[in-house]
UniProtKB/TrEMBL annotation, chain A:
<dbReference type="Pfam" id="PF02653">
    <property type="entry name" value="BPD_transp_2"/>
</dbReference>
<feature type="transmembrane region" description="Helical">
    <location>
        <begin position="170"/>
        <end position="190"/>
    </location>
</feature>
<feature type="transmembrane region" description="Helical">
    <location>
        <begin position="242"/>
        <end position="263"/>
    </location>
</feature>
<dbReference type="GO" id="GO:0015658">
    <property type="term" value="F:branched-chain amino acid transmembrane transporter activity"/>
</dbReference>
<feature type="transmembrane region" description="Helical">
    <location>
        <begin position="6"/>
        <end position="24"/>
    </location>
</feature>
<feature type="transmembrane region" description="Helical">
    <location>
        <begin position="123"/>
        <end position="149"/>
    </location>
</feature>
<dbReference type="InterPro" id="IPR001851">
    <property type="entry name" value="ABC_transp_permease"/>
</dbReference>
<feature type="transmembrane region" description="Helical">
    <location>
        <begin position="55"/>
        <end position="77"/>
    </location>
</feature>
<feature type="transmembrane region" description="Helical">
    <location>
        <begin position="196"/>
        <end position="213"/>
    </location>
</feature>
TrEMBL record, chain B:
<keyword id="KW-1133">Transmembrane helix</keyword>
<dbReference type="GO" id="GO:0022857">
    <property type="term" value="F:transmembrane transporter activity"/>
</dbReference>
<comment type="similarity">
    <text>Belongs to the binding-protein-dependent transport system permease family. LivHM subfamily.</text>
</comment>
<feature type="transmembrane region" description="Helical">
    <location>
        <begin position="6"/>
        <end position="25"/>
    </location>
</feature>
<feature type="transmembrane region" description="Helical">
    <location>
        <begin position="58"/>
        <end position="81"/>
    </location>
</feature>
<dbReference type="Pfam" id="PF02653">
    <property type="entry name" value="BPD_transp_2"/>
</dbReference>
<feature type="transmembrane region" description="Helical">
    <location>
        <begin position="132"/>
        <end position="157"/>
    </location>
</feature>
<feature type="transmembrane region" description="Helical">
    <location>
        <begin position="226"/>
        <end position="248"/>
    </location>
</feature>
<keyword id="KW-0812">Transmembrane</keyword>
Amino acid sequence: MSGYLTGVLVVLAFNVIAAYAVYLPLAAGQLNLGIAGFMAIGAYTAAYLTNEMGWTILPAVVAGGAAAGLVGLVVGLPVLRTHGIYLAMATFALGQVISAIFLNLDVVGGAAGYPVTEYAPPAAVFGLAIGVVLFMLLLSSTRFALYLAAVKGDPTVADLLGISVRGIQAAAFTLGAIVAGVGGGLYAHHFSFIEAQHFSVLLSVFTVLYVLFGGTQTVWGPLVGAGFFTLVPELLRAGDQYRYAIFAFVLILFMAIRPQGLVTTAMLRLRRRAGSAA
Amino acid sequence: MLLQQLVNGLMLGAIYMLVAVAFTIAIGVLNFLNFSLPGLFMLGGMLAFGMMKLGWPWFLAFAGALFVAALVSLIVERFAYRPMQGSDPEVPLVSSLGFLVLLENLMLIRYGSDQQPFPALMPDMNLRIGEVVIGIAQLVSLGISVALVAWLSWFLAATNAGRRIRTVAESRETALLMGIDIRSLVPALFVASALLAALGGILFAVNYQQVSPFMGEGIGFKGVAAMIVGGMGSIWGAVVGGLLIGLAEVLSISMLGADVVNITVYGLLLLILIVRPQGLMGRPATREKL
């Protein structure tokens, strides 16, 4: 594999992981605009553990995910009292505060960034991305996915049916944070350098874009969305400076024509029917 | 020099205030978190700069920039808002963000990514009251912002058109049943919020004498914060929120350093959302989107 292709695929893998971190809470009706903050927690925790504590990469990345999940749980409980756009703005604010805190933490380099000595090869990144996708596919076939859909569709009815709405909401939020944290931890070790400025609100917002573009109705949406957003700008490289303008233009037109996203339940059902007829 | 910082904070807050009011119109009436507004803010500043560079007098350049921003906002309405009615409420976010990226990159192609110096329009005069220095340009823009918002508030409260807008904000269905022509009202609201945002961008350019294709992002997000702190959908809430965020930013820069700005500003937002989600002056949400 050429270096360029590997580079693109690595970016794709990280985008897929991030997309699923956004997808999980979104499947429960929570728009998380602060996912970059949780990636930052995972990245800095894991990097600190390998740099200063002499941990190996694997436990450090797991610890990074755990740290992000813990923050997600602790902050999520008060934040999840808000709903809808208020929740979206609360997560947005949370992401900003987290990345600003790391910007001011001198233990991990502050504004100058934080070099990471341990290196994770591309294979590890691909492995994690595939693992996350498989985990999500598995999750989508369990009752948990139904609970998420129920809570998203109508929390009151879900409550009446005996689903612990708060519990499911907190679980979705925390799981999303864990996935983001693990992705962030590996990001730090693959690129060997992290800076707080990378984990900006735009990173969060673009990740949400992948998911909404791919469609939130099925578990495949985030994968397709992340793939499109990573690969199409690469293909448009020939367009040089017009690249992102063309890309944004395509995005706007696409959403106007197909607001439900690229992959929908109806589409998958159609394929299954065609498959069984053949 | 605390007093001076308070004055600076108020002046910056006046800009946030305009952006926050623009957001609050879009969200309070249309239930649409319109992320193209930071793009329109930038468009106001950049186009005014570009047209003045072509040799246009400032008032023509300003009018031209406002006109283009209004036009673009109508396109946003057509492609980001109208097709999304009845679909998942997060979706218009995607398209309006698409417009933000599109506008930024079009300006980038035309003018480059660097910060450009914006010509000084007003004589470099300062008012000195005791030890406090107030720039004339800043004072004028504070005046314009406050007057505009006061007028808007009066317009919504006292005129027929204002009553129609408030009816739509209260309930779209009822408004439709009462015979209000929503299809012509919605584009008008898009134009109004675009004009406010673009005017904010022009005033920012005049005040701080610099423009860049990415000037909208940071200010746009702080405008959203200001809107929520004040209370979503409330015009005077947006005013209070804007001034508060401006003060918090300037005071934390002068006392704690520039790097902690995001901690104070967004920490304040987070605190408000947890303690009092409806904002300082907002009513509790009975119905919301997204």
